[in-house]
Amino acid sequence: MEPFSDLEAVQNPVARARGLANAHYTDLSVYEVEKHALLFRQWAGLGVAADIPQIGDAKPVDFLDVPLVMIRDRSNRVRVFQNICRHRGMILIDAPKKIEGAIRCPYHSWCYATDGRLISTPHVGGPGINTHEDIDRDALGLIEVASYIWRDIIWVNLSGTAPAFEIAMAEPMERWSEFDQPLFHGGADSRFELALNTNWKLAVENYCESYHLPWVHPGLNSYSRLEDHYNIQSAGCYSGQGTTVYRQLTGNRAEKFPDFKNLSSKWNQAAEYLAIYPNVLLGTHRDHAFAVIIAPLGPEKSIEHVHLYYATDATEPTLRAQNTAQWKSVLEEDIFVVEGMQRGRHGPGFDGGRFSPAMDAPTHCFHAWVAKTLTEAQNEPAQHSPASAFAPAP
Questions:
Q1: For residue 330, which of 160, 157, 212, 154 has the smallest C-alpha distance?
Q2: What does the alpha-carbon distance between residue 170 and residue 177 come to, in Å, rounded to a whole number?
Q3: Percentage of residues in the chain with pLDDT exceeding 70?
Q4: What is the pTM of this model?
Q5: Distance CA 304, CA 280 (A)
Q6: For the packed helices 200-208 and 335-344, what is the interaxial angle rounded to 10 degrees?
Q7: CA 152, CA 165: separation in Å to the nearest integer?
Q8: What is the pLDDT of residues 41-56, one digit of tens each?
């Protein structure tokens, strides 16, 4: 099957739809097209603000081969820049650090403020002459990437062409508006990473549905059964699942995490798990939340960055560690599934598969979004070069 020849069939109603063809999971040329259409042109998850908690903190992140750096500037604003000097393209920051003064290029010592302004160009006009009439510092600030923080995630739009975040993500923001309150990262014991030998989309697809619970997560299914779950889907934005029997974690002394404030009674026992397209998986409960940012590393490799959050910054360490271990175990149970599906995508007779109309609607919702987005991108390829929208910092 030729790449992109399947997109119309993928967008059929769930009962008649085919899944994405093998090339969407294995072919490097298709991966490159999807990188631009599905990730650069959308609001994608890059990192979390908790990684740069203090003014001057900076953390480099390579996102789909684009070198970026997340910085908390002197006004306490989180910003994202291309991690390159405007002089000769040298990488500026190669490890997390605190910027005490300016961001200094290690090559020729050009310096930038944490808001991206070029503030020093030593010897640019010759030895001892630090200015030159043809070097306009105001036009040579760091190249800034559009960014927004929601639920502590640093979302970026590399192309600069997506609608404003509040418009693009209006539906999930409204759905979880009761949780529009402070989130506190649990700290070092509330983060971990999982390396996956799979295409990033399979990790999203698996997260969307609860169909696999009885066989892949028997422990979780023992108290939050398949029949206790419901499907969630919003065409073109997100999909996932919810449960009506969330059970709070209880410690040895009957301690529990404090609840988020002023929640409606729905959340006494409910919990929801949303895949926000393209690459962020979110879970929310009355007493804690988590975020999984999926970083694609090529057609057949990805890594999940997992962070857990609470309603207060004073949670009990033992209980917090127990919660992290519990979620790590659940997410690890999915690894053999997503890696098994990846291996299956090398079967030449596989045509993308079918969907259960009753159980797979959230996964089909994601497939349909991929197909629609790729179709639109194929029809307007010249208008959305990701590099064209980057602009120097003001």
A1: 212
A2: 10
A3: 95
A4: 0.94
A5: 9
A6: 120
A7: 14
A8: 999 999 999 999 999 9
Distance CA 364, CA 357 (A): 9
The predicted-structure confidence for 118-162, as pLDDT tens digits, reads as follows 999 999 999 999 999 999 999 999 999 999 999 999 999 999 999
74: amino acid identity, one letter: R
Structure-token pair, residue 119 = 């503030």
Q: What structural domains does the chain harbor?
A: 7-41+167-377 (3.90.380.10), 45-150 (2.102.10.10)
For the chain, give the mean pLDDT: 93
The mean pLDDT of 83-106, rounded to a whole number, is 97
- pLDDT band per the 50, 70, 90 thresholds, residue 388: very low
